[in-house]
């Protein structure tokens, strides 16, 4: 085993690149946070005060943040997260899907049966949630098919 | 996966941050590999081997006896 290959100058450049990626990552999540918090803040104001301008501003702040965030991803360094962070994201997404699947498998037949027998009528939000989870699995099936074709 | 990254870093007087920068990952990723909480991709394993000018198996010991 010999000396590590990268000289100090390269290491310094590598550090700078890593710092740059960190900055862009902070910037990306910062912009998204501002967009989401700004949206809810303005919607809260709109609920109390009213006024179309405030409602439109809320959507504008949110969409603006999305566009800026995409700009950061596009013009920033290649990938703002490394492989471990991407694996964490994938694992968390898998767990989220697992929870949604568990709730869907348990909840959908139960709610349908209770609704049909008139024992319990689910409120619209609960039906919406179940349909949302079902749609999520529809999207998952398409994404799975697409991804599988790439391997 | 068992690995000799901490020894190699010490030998070359490198911090986790230095090594992370050299191979293009975060310091936390190097830390997770050293603590055997994360197995690197083949690409990263080869980058590490290239950086230390050694073979991948000089750094990582998969301990295949369990499998």
TrEMBL record, chain A:
Superkingdom, taxonomy of origin: Archaea
Membrane-crossing segments per the record: 27-47, 53-76, 97-119, 125-146
Keyword vocabulary terms for this entry: Membrane, Transmembrane, Transmembrane helix
Protein name (database record): Predicted membrane protein
Automatic annotation (TrEMBL), chain B:
The HTH cro/C1-type domain, residue ranges: 8-59
Pfam families tied to this protein: HTH_3
SMART domains reported for this sequence: HTH_XRE (SM00530)
Superkingdom as given in the UniProt entry: Archaea
DNA-binding in keyword set: yes
Membrane-spanning parts: none
Keywords (A to Z) from UniProt: DNA-binding
Statement: the UniProt record of this protein carries the keyword DNA-binding: yes
GO molecular function: DNA binding
Listed name of the protein: Putative transcriptional regulator
Organism, as annotated: Halovenus aranensis
